[in-house]
Write a structure and sequence with these properties.
single chain; 421 residues; alpha+beta; six-stranded antiparallel beta sheet; 11 helices; 15% strand; transmembrane; transmembrane helix
Length: 421
Amino acid sequence: MMFFRSLALCFLVSALTCIIAAPATSEDAKLPPTDSEYPEVIPGPGLPSLESLGLTSADLYRNRTMNALSSRNEDDYIIYCLTGGATTSVSTAQACINYLSSLGTGDCMVPANPDVITFCSSGQSVICGTNVWGNGQAVHSWCSDVAVTAQSIVDLCQTNGQVDGYGQAAENSNMLGYVALAINHDFKLYPMSLTPNPATEFSSSTIENFSAQASEFTAPILRVIPYITFASSVVRTTFAFIWSLFRPFLRLSPLPIILYVLGPVIVFVDIFTTVFIRAPYNIIVYLLEALYPLYVFCGVACITGVILGLSARIISRLIVAAMSAEEEPPHMDENEDEPRLDSDLKGKGRQREPERVRVKVKVESESAISSVRIACQMPPGIHTLSTLLCGLVATMKHYKPTFLIPESYFVQRVNHTPMDR
């Protein structure tokens, strides 16, 4: 019961509020302005009409910030404000800006000839675009980008409710947007049904000024982008056409049936390759990655050992060769060098080999040490290092070593000054 009573009280309060808020008479209610109170917004040639967009001129004048349009950062693009000449009203220019903004990604195109075209006009304001590419081709921009440029001009160039200026179209350096008075010394706006074309009335000096200003901030890459876009469009169109030709044949192709029949085989092959090819391969790769540091360490150790071994061998050979070269040739008796001829029982002579005599050396005085020589020999099968050690020992014993190397074996010979048999 209390609930219904509270609900009835709420309805009563709401009704009283509506009665108090309603105007007492029709004279107190302020009616919105009609379309006749605003200048007509006239779209440019080839652009949608207001009726097709469901808009009226009054809508464009009332909604001064349609589609949450914001001007660009003045540091990103160059905006030129014209002063000292005829200007136009900000309100009429804003209406055209709102119209272009409502077109969104619609195409605002400026042909190569004439290279100036009107996008929108209202009252004495006009928004134009000029083609500064200079290669005989039309330039295209989104109408919303043209609106962004025009909004920047209005925001940066207005003075006391008047504005006049131009700047590069957003995202397209080959088009300049122009916000100006429709009737001034530069050009004259004609109705669309009459001639001459309003674009042709744009003075040549103004167009040259646009081109000169655009060349200052037109990057070379921006001149190539239209060609790239055109080439990609041609490629896509070509492939789409070729695909459309083959599409009827694909419907008659037996490929789906073949794939359905071969389904078990395809699955078996996938399992087989997974178990016997991909899995072992992944295992081997994992092991190789894990053992890679050990492999590198062993490889470096082997290479270092080989280098050290070869270096030691070469150095030892050089030491032996140097010590051998410094020694004098052994002193040998002439009689011992001559072969002995002995007669046998039959009277025939034959050559006898020299006898090898081992002689003990006894040094009697200190002065005789310098004349004693010890022959260091290397018997067959013994490494050359033993010969080197022999020479070192002889040197430590104050003897002068002599290295004797015969042709087939080593002969031990001792030459001395004092000798005791």
